[in-house]
Amino acid sequence: MKLPPFTSPPHCCNLLIMKMNSDFLDLFARSFRLPLLVTLAFSSVASADSPNSPPPVTAMLEQTESSIDARFRQWGDLGNGTYANPILNGDFADSDVERDEANDRWVMITSTNHYSPGMTLLESKDLVNWQYTGHAIPTITWEPSYNWDQMNGYRFGCWAGDLVQHNGEWLCYQIDFQSGLYLTRANDLAGPWTEPVCLLKRKHWTDPAVYFDNEKQEAWLVCNWGKGSPPRPDQPHEIKLFRLSWDGSELLDEGTTIFSGTAVEAAKIRRFDNQWYIMLIEWQGEGASRDRKQLCLRSQTDSLQGPYESRVVMERETDSDRSACQGSLIEAPDGRWWFMHQLVQNGTPVFHGRPQCLQPVTWKEGWPIIGEDIDGDGIGEPVWVHNKPIPSEHARPLQTSDEFDGQQIGPQWNWNHEPRRERFSLSARPGYLRLHASQPVTVDRGRLKGAFWGASNTLSQRHLGVAKTTATTKLDLRGMTWGTRAGFCHHSGRYALFGVQRQKDGTTQLFFNHNGKLDTGPTVPGTDLYLRSTTDGDEADFAWSLDGESWITTPWNYTLNFGNWRGNRPGVFCWNNRTDDVSESGWVDIDWFHYETGSKP
């Protein structure tokens, strides 16, 4: 247990800090049970489980990551003409990369599941340094379970998708495993994007990718058709190819199966040297050797419909337990090829999600070798440090902090499910984000227990890196009323809440909630409160301050984890268990959120 430090505060705050430390000592005298409670809370495992075919057991066990592979501690642009993988060291799963020639940039989409807005957009000049641009799916309202008044769509929503430019338009396709195939459009990447339109309502399929053949004026969509709907355990997954209307808005046939295998998915169509290729992934092997390998299909005719021959073109290293696959084959302007892919959640570290890596590609006898063929078996393995594809100045870092002084919330943020839009504002008090408290919605969410999962307007972003991070936020508490709770959170498949709650007598009390297990702290005076969470690896600690200078460290801590198909997400929350009446539920004003991420040596 960490006792709060008795730092030397400014003279004007001496008596106030002495009173707070006295309150904390009283709390400890009453609460010697705290270490036991925290230990018991950590024993509750919220694992990520697949709705279709589960990943290896290692993906479903609690991860203990006190000793993290040093390769993950450096990432991105190293400032000397080289980069280190991962280039995006956070939960940027299910990426697709498209070249935007007109603006001399690459654009990436990455899945968001039950978070809104959906399908994060990023852009880059050199494939290494990326910036958030926005989101390709403005709302996820196609199923009522994603709305704020249900909040019961965890794990589903925006899964892997495909981004393409066609006829002067951007098109974004994605399949919700529980719903169907959806399409949004925009004339400009920055938007506005259209609301999602359903092209085919069907459950239990995933991963669309499209190709517009400008020579033949033909359009195609390939996808993982699954094992049937409902799935049949004795049937392999099928990769199906559909004819698509030239405007991209309609499937023209019932599709043709072109490949099948064990959990095959994530197909992408490419044309190279007058031949058709489809990149996809498949689980192969048993036990400790089981690996999700990157496959390449090559058509034996000049037809996308095949028949195809297949070859493994990338696998994990022999000294790694984490599969490397699923991504985009990219041709750079100088004619060299690259492959953007993710690291699968079947190894460690995984608490920060599925990061993105960039591999060089060489072609040999008409087949790509991704990464480097380290063991000489003709199959590539990932490289961890490499020369950058394009020489460039070190770009601005990925956006993380937010002063909330604009007209829109920054593109790094997502709401947990669809937000209650009338209950947040950037204009009610310019320079602040105001969150009006709602009463959490109570429904059966299976293993997800607690009010947090039903509390609307929780705002969060991706955790970045596996080294030390610091997230600090400043709150103005004067709008809180009896029952209002507000503060800082970490969450994925479970949660930790560090904040304050307004009592019936008007006092404000510090609290910590570890996945439904509540502990309380001292009374907090005044209206301004600073909250901080520092992480090192997968361990998070918490501190608070009245002035942003003198900090009181709490005894509370939390182990970050992967769950609900997402890595850890830091953010802010506000709700009221007592009432949903907006005239009585209260609010919190968030002045700013500063997030310093894992270092790049």
From TrEMBL:
Any one Pfam family match given in the protein's UniProt record, by short name: Glyco_hydro_43
Keywords annotated in UniProt: Glycosidase, Hydrolase
Entry GO MF terms: xylan 1,4-beta-xylosidase activity
EC number: 3.2.1.37
Domain annotation Beta-xylosidase C-terminal Concanavalin A-like: ranges: 401-596
Enzyme class: hydrolase
Superkingdom of the source species: Bacteria
InterPro entries, per database record: ConA-like_dom_sf, GH43_C2, Glyco_hydro_43, Glyco_hydro_beta-prop_sf, Glycosyl_Hydrlase_43
Keyword Hydrolase listed: yes
GO biological process: carbohydrate metabolic process
Stated family: Belongs to the glycosyl hydrolase 43 family.
The protein's name in its UniProt record: Beta-xylosidase
Species annotation: Rhodopirellula islandica
